[in-house]
């Protein structure tokens, strides 16, 4: 029983190191393994340790991106409302033909 746990811990450590290395090499276009092999290793790691921090980092980045997109949408809505207010003010309250420059 203890040997199985030690073997699984060793396998988890090995998979984490290999996946991390392969991800870093993939971004520099020096990938050693194929994408299929890397996906198989990730699937195996998910089966052995589904709460591994390696997967947590990915979801954490996704949350940051979604938060950034929500903020960006709110900013765009604010800008649209502000521009609409300025246009309304200019069209209905300030008429340069009625009040010409003197």
Q: How would you explain this protein's 3D organization?
A:
This protein has a domain at 2-50. Helix content is 78%, strand content 0%. It contains three helices and no strands. The protein has helices spanning 2-27, 35-48, 53-92. The mean pLDDT is 81.
* Approximate helicity band: over 70%
Counting helices, strands and paired strands, the structural category is mainly alpha
Largest sheet: none
Report low-confidence residues grouped into runs of 5 or more: none
Sequence-ordered SSE layout with sheet pairings:
Blueprint: H1 2-27, H2 35-48, H3 53-92
Helix pairs in contact: 1-2
Pick out its properties.
single chain, 102 residues, mainly alpha, rod-shaped
Short description:
This protein is mainly alpha-helical. It has helices at residues 2-27, 35-48, 53-92. The protein has a domain at 2-50.
